[in-house]
Amino acid sequence: GVEADLRIQGSIQVVAESALRDQLFTNMSQVGGQDMGQPGTYQSSYMPGTDAMGPMDGSAYDQASSFRATLFRPSVPVRPPQSAGMGGMANSPQPQARPDIYADQGITSGGGATSMYAMERIDAERETASKSRHRTPFSLRKEATDLGAVDREGEAGSPYIQKTSDLWAQTLAKRRERQAANQRVMSPQAQAQGDRERERENAMRQEAEREREMEAQEERERQMERDAQMQRESMAREQEEMERERERSLQMEREQLQREEEEREREAMAARESEAPREVSNPLRTQRRSPAPVSAERAEPVQERQLLDSRIVLTEVAANRREAILDKGITLKAEPFMESSILTREQAMSLYFSLPFEYAPSTHLIWSSVKYGFSMQTLHALVDSNGTTVLVAKCGDKVFGGFASTPWNTSGVRFGTARCFLFSLTDDLLIPFNR
């Protein structure tokens, strides 16, 4: 058989091994001078609550918290051969032989008293050996003795009695003690090693932080470069658009001048035809008729236009204006357009005295593409609502601009007077003035 010993704390009843074994057999009878028995409950595997310690009805003990189970190998019941000479017992169930569990001791089932004595002796020896091997838990010894409290050191050291939680608590306590001891007894070498590790980690962390800052700075610089590139491209597009607009306006002016010239030629031809004498043919006689006189009321003077040099006109207008201002006792307080990078000193003086104002105001620079770039938003932010302004631009060798006697605004509503106009210093100069 295979024996399994399982113990836990609690109150139990100690049962001898022979008693455990005898509980497996019922309906004991004496047949032929031998102890025979009919097997009762056969147990081939352990089942909690129906083991060998339980009652015969298969239920468990009420307070059984520690038990011992003996598992037996299955044995084939032995049936005696049926004989016709035994009468009515031939067809009736025959008692089976009890398994010979003493064969390993060299004892066989002989006569009644002798075999019974041998079995009892061996049972007694096994019971004694079992009691010597079996250690009764402390709770049972305390109930079975009147000595009071006994030493529990042996029981406390048994892994069968101690709870798993107690063992785990002891393990954690020992681990904490070892960790505390390691921290208290740390050698100077270990402390120095730990300091070096911390310094290395701090240096690595600072290096990573510097790298992140450098990457962020590089990203900001790249973004600024992209913005500047976009602004330059926008300025180039605006300049190209202005150039195309100027070309279109010049083309329209040339076409207008050409149409006017053609119209004048047609009018001149019509006038010459009207002044030429007419001849009337008559088959009877030929008479020369003189043209009818032209009424003075219907005669219109012929207007002739002539292109003038803009520099000459500008110089004459500026000289006349300057003389008129000086006659009034007005003097200049500062040089006109002194900070301009487009106008020469001669052009600045001529333009200044050609503008339609009756006094000599001071000029100061409020916006320049050299300083502020070509942003229209910046231009309007500086120029809007800033009084009378003069805008001068240069594209290639062409210099042109505009004069605004009223403040600028960006409301989208048309504004201005006849004293707001455009001008050019290199092509035909058209600047109105009052004599």
Automatic annotation (TrEMBL):
PROSITE patterns (UniProt xref): TLDC
Keywords annotated in UniProt: Mitochondrion
Biased composition (Basic and acidic residues): 140-155, 194-278
Keyword presence, Mitochondrion: yes
Gene Ontology CC terms, in alphabetical order: mitochondrion
Subcellular localization: Mitochondrion
Positions of region (Disordered): 125-302
Start and end residues of each TLDc domain: 341-435
Ranges of Polar residues composition bias in the record: 180-192
Listed transmembrane segments: none
Domain of life of the native organism: Eukaryota
One Pfam family cited in the UniProt record for this chain: TLD
Family: Belongs to the OXR1 family.
Name of the protein in its database record: Oxidation resistance protein 1
Organism from which the protein derives: Kipferlia bialata
Lineage: Eukaryota, Metamonada, Carpediemonas-like organisms, Kipferlia
